[in-house]
Amino acid sequence: MLIVLALYIVEGLQFDNGYLSSFFVTDNEKMAVEFDHCKLLLVDMKIANEKTLLVLLRLPLEEVTHF
């Protein structure tokens, strides 16, 4: 029995699968999507209605960010 372990370290965030549409591509030469200073919303709760979602989406606009 052979067990192989591998560790891949990537800079940024990388997904195994791509977007559903090529319209999301920002770099046509590499066929890749790249964003600078983007925000990512991760939640561990059910978003019951659009009012809750709007509150969550406004939070990054209210905070002061330094790049």
UniProtKB/TrEMBL annotation:
Keywords: Chaperone. GO terms for biological process: protein refolding. InterPro entries: Cpn60/GroEL, GroEL-like_apical_dom_sf. GO terms for molecular function: ATP-dependent protein folding chaperone. Signal peptide: none annotated. Belongs to the chaperonin (HSP60) family. This is Uncharacterized protein. It comes from Brassica oleracea.
